[in-house]
Write a structure and sequence with these properties.
Blueprint: H1 5-27, H2 35-41, H3 44-65, H4 70-94, H5 96-104, H6 112-124, H7 126-135, H8 158-178, H9 185-199, H10 212-229, H11 235-249, H12 253-280, H13 287-298, H14 300-307, H15 309-331, H16 336-380
Helix pairs in contact: 1-3, 1-12, 1-13, 1-14, 1-15, 3-8, 3-10, 3-12, 4-8, 4-15, 4-16, 5-15, 8-9, 8-10, 9-10, 9-11, 10-11, 13-14, 15-16
């Protein structure tokens, strides 16, 4: 399987884009930045859209290299997501009280009414929210049906449900995009139809695009991008990706176009670096390009942060709540400079927690999934090993 260090590096930038955006929203520090820069930095939704593209790219890369039945594939994906998600979800639920101090008693944070209403919904529908989260399907119900279904307890978890929904269908979609006649193009067409209906609120209203048809365009962009590197993208893949992007523009043309342009400005350079990696085994052919690629994507520090990015993305909100809320209670201070300082103090804790969660939860969870698969394969094997002569 081809390894794209540039894509791993992009994950690091995206995770910390989300962290910085939430830090600005929590502390009010965006007031000290240029208005346009602050607006971009708090647009964590754009970083998540890029995460979707990366997911489509990486899963396609894996499916092209590894031939395995659906059961082993989805088991590996489940143990890639669920163990870390459950651990951080428990942390988030356990720290709800201190979270209230950091995000509701803090006069500089944004969306007080939204967060207060969400916490009320968590109390009113707690068991239902918990059950949905443990299935990783909490992004499917519209918020108009189950209030705050996708963001209850752990707000960044909405995109984990979206990721899981994509994993469930990814093998069929990749097959449809590489071999339309042999694959399942009907599924892609159905998703495109559902996308149009969902984007125009025909099934209800979602506060975030946590239902797969709402975000399928970005996953398809990742799939098609990876196939283009091997010149294996069918006309069907390109047309479906283009149509799905066009559907996004029908919702709110001006804001959607602006968002898609920002996403493209980030994705295209990293895809160009990945293309060089695919062709030459190096980040670039020219010295200056190699230097730029190393600085922004392929150096060891960025690579390490990329490997920790899943943990960083999930755990930073509970840790902001714990660190900032505790500091507020101990100091009694709520002025903006103090809140900014408390927020900055959380950053090294997030780094250390990301490393610990990656090494002690995420990687063991992946190994557990592989062990269960190996055990299941062994249990289905015939008795004895003919080569060893034992029975």
């Amino acid at each position: 399987m081809k390894i794209f260090r540039s894509i791993e590096g992009l994950r690091a930038w995206l995770a910390w884009w989300v962290v910085v955006g939430h830090a600005l929203n929590l502390s009010g520090a965006g007031a000290y930045l240029p208005r346009r820069l602050a607006w971009i930095m708090v647009r964590g939704d754009l970083a998540v859209a890029l995460f979707m593209i990366v997911s489509g790219f990486v899963i396609t890369n894996m499916l092209l290299a590894r031939t395995e039945r659906y059961g082993p594939y989805i088991t590996r994906r489940l143990f890639r997501l669920l163990p870390l998600f459950v651990v951080v979800l428990v942390l988030a639920i356990a720290s709800r009280d201190i979270f209230t101090t950091a995000f509701l008693d803090n006069p500089w944070t944004t969306a007080h009414a939204y967060r207060a209403d969400r916490m009320h919904a968590e109390a009113a529908y707690g068991l239902l929210h918990l059950g949905l989260h443990l299935t990783l399907l909490h992004g499917i119900p519209p918020d108009s049906m189950i209030p705050y279904a996708s963001t209850a307890f752990l707000a960044p978890g909405w995109s984990l449900s979206l990721e899981w929904q994509f994993y469930l269908l990814a093998p069929l979609l990749v097959a449809a995009f590489t071999r339309p006649r042999a694959g399942s193009p009907g599924l892609a067409v159905l998703l495109l139809l559902l996308s149009g209906l969902a984007l125009h609120s025909m099934f209800g209203r979602w506060q975030l695009p946590s239902f797969l048809p709402l975000s399928i365009a970005f996953f398809w962009c990742g799939i098609t991008s990876r196939l283009l590197l091997d010149r294996a993208a069918s006309a069907f893949a390109i047309v479906m990706t283009g149509l799905s992007m066009a559907l996004l523009l029908t919702v709110s043309f001006r804001s959607s176009l602006q968002s898609l342009l920002i996403v493209a400005l980030v994705w295209v350079p990293f895809l160009a670096i990945a293309a060089r990696e695919a062709r030459t085994g190096r980040s670039a052919e020219w010295k200056w390009a190699r230097i730029v690629a190393w600085l922004v994507a392929t150096n060891p520090v960025i690579g390490t942060l990329g490997r920790w990015s899943y943990a960083t993305y999930l755990v930073h909100v509970p840790l902001f709540g714990i660190i900032v809320g505790t500091a507020m209670r101990l100091s009694g201070r709520v002025d903006r400079p103090a809140i900014i300082l408390f927020t900055l103090l959380a950053v090294p804790v997030i780094l250390l927690a990301s490393a610990a969660l990656h090494h002690f939860v995420e990687r063991p969870g992946i190994r557990l999934g592989a062990w269960l698969l190996a055990r299941g394969t062994k249990s289905r094997a015939p008795w004895g090993d003919p080569a060893s002569g034992t029975a």
